[in-house]
Amino acid sequence: MNTSRRIFIKNSSLTIAGVSLLPKILHQKSPGIILGIQLYSVRDDMKKDPEGTLKKLANMGFIDVEHAGYENRKFSGYTIADFKKLLSDTGLKMDSGHSFLGSQHWDRNTNDFTYEWKYTIEDAATVGMKYVISPGVDESLCKSMDDFKHYLDMFNKSGELCKKSGIHFAFHNESYEFNHNLNGKSIYDLILEQTDNNLVAQQMDIGNMYEPGGRALYFLKKYPGRFKLMHVKDEMKKNKPEENGNLYESTILGKGVIDIKAIIDYARNNGTKYFIIEQEEYQDKTPIECADLDYKKMKGWGF
Q: What pLDDT score does 67 carry?
């Protein structure tokens, strides 16, 4: 349920376009709180009709989108300048996006980031983003404590590099971090304990953590103030679980097993600003239908 999105982010990019729309800020009821959608939720629609898809999302009331793809110094095949104009023309904002930080982005010979990662941050700042978010960990750097400490140092250094560009670096959890340990501690706890809070923000995905045993309220209370962003996702048991695979899949908010409202109520009163809807499976509905239902559910909860 989460590996496919990370592969998608690493190997492809979404196409984003749009049409002129009135500002959507009036839809936001909670001061300082941003309600958005991760465009991976409507990935197939975006490939077929990006302009029409963004128009539908905007008409629902969304004011913020989060990208799930950037490569070759382009967003969805557009130059940075052209893509920035597209965002302006739609009336939508893109305050955050997912770009995977892995071992390939650090040059051990120069003891510095590669130009590829430096450009990722530079282009994010130019297009108007506030957060560059790395989804999941590079599992090749999680086999020994020495490698993992080097990886966490990369996180902190990425935070420093982002700061120089006026933006922030953040980490987004998948499921791996909750069922893999080093020195008797989960990967997720180690990330939260050994990264600098001033340099590495956290985007909690409350759905990804559920199946391996992570519980959102527990971590929100254990690490207060760490979670600036959240992926709002519900989970339900699959009708036909995959053999040796996931037992759960994402579903429309409020239809699954997660107490979403309790989590988001606590989070927005304790420092979380961005609430990004993400749904990866759709049961008997279309992705656009699910996005609309998810949006309406969040609005009913006061967003």
A: 92
